[in-house]
Amino acid sequence: MRVSLRNLWRSAAVLSVLTVATTGVFAQAAAQKTIALVGGMLITGREELPINHATVLIQGNRILAVGPMDQVKIPAGATVIDTHTQTMLPGLIDTHVHMVLIGHGDYPTYFKWLDNHQKDYPLSRIMDISAEQLIDAGVTSAVDLGSPLQDILDLRTRINKGMPGPRLQVSGPWLTRHVAIFPDNYQHNVTSPQDAADYVTMLANAGVDVIKAHSGLTRDDYFAIVKAAHAKNIKVHAHIYEEESVRNAFDAGVDVMQHVGSAGLPPYSPALLNDLARSGRPVVPTVYHRAWLYPDTIQFPERLDDPQFKGELGEPLYTEMMNSFKNFPSLSYFQRVDREEFFGDKSIRQWIDSGTVVGMGTDNGTPANFHKDALWREIKVFVDHGMPPMRAIIDATRVNARNIMGNRDLGTIEPGKLADIIAVDGNPLYDIAALGNVKVVVKDGVIYKGGPKAEKNK
Ligand SMILES: [Zn+2]
Questions:
Q1: Neighbours of 231 (CB within 10 A)
Q2: Is residue 286 domain-shared with residue 327, that is, in the same domain?
Q3: In angstroms, what is the span from residue 243 Cα to ligand 1's centroid?
Q4: Each residue of 124-159: pLDDT tens digit?
Q5: pLDDT given for residue 179 in this prediction
Q6: How far is the CA of 213 from the centre of ligand 1 (A)?
């Protein structure tokens, strides 16, 4: 079993005097070192051909130089990571995650279990596990859409201070008029447009990065929510399915349409698709999490009991999660999956064919939709339906960074940008599933996975 990044961070935080000597993670950050990733193919995140046998030079937390390896000089003393036979690309970004969920099969059972195990499994521990799983899978940034407010703000702070995990944008509790089967502190029950606006202002003042408008909201609610959020300069993500809800959210100026087309509904009207495409506003269709996850898991149930879970979750959570999958086909989460499968292909094609801006997000943490593999599976569904692999990779990196997170410092590998870079085995342009074989993860100039042997053995 590999060393837990989280435990390394915790011990490093306690023994701060020794951190430079004992942990690669902290040594890298402290010394503003130079790192060179050398030899692999490079996908920059821009619309251009990959650079073969490339070198990426990092200094501190920024990218210093990029180019063919015979043209980029590596300074003496640089930490060199050999990426031959690999592909380097910008760190992946997932624009719909749930840090409080781990893929357990049944929400009511899971939340009751957490209630009964608060001492050993406080929410902070669950979220730290999710954070580690995401960074290990090459997800260097993510948008969390629905957690208790203080818990998720605290997680963002821990990660910003150096704990392994993706850079986070967080929404805190969502706003809804259909209270879901989640505990009360995950959601605010909207009673009027004014009430919705007041709640948005409260969240913005508390420090959230985005707002999540959940289901059942009226047209006036959307207008009130968007107005209040934009007054604070933050974006609104809407959880929407039906044509009328999408139209209301779109007209009100919602910035990101989440889930659209993924609930077993026929494709949207040409007028709505045309408006979405022409607006340039992104959709995040979250297609994999039921319509493809279900048949994949029925065909290959082996994916459910990855031994890595045992070390990451610990006991008794590991056993509890495995028990939740015992009768997988009967889980209530999948009871409408036949309709989703029926409309699935058309649903995806509508986005590819209309030219709508697509962001990649997974809703991960939902039943059997694991942090460790949700994003490459989501990307693969689009590629399997005709999206060019380069397009899909750019959607999961540059489009997610700029069009959704509003961050122009992320999403491409070019001099001056923040150093969030991963390397995967093989060529994802040939086989997109290569994105599931993450060998190197660098975030903010810090090596989280796959450093040179000498460093890992220190
Ligand atoms: Zn969600």
A1: 12
A2: yes
A3: 19
A4: 999 999 999 999 999 999 999 999 999 999 999 999
A5: 84
A6: 11
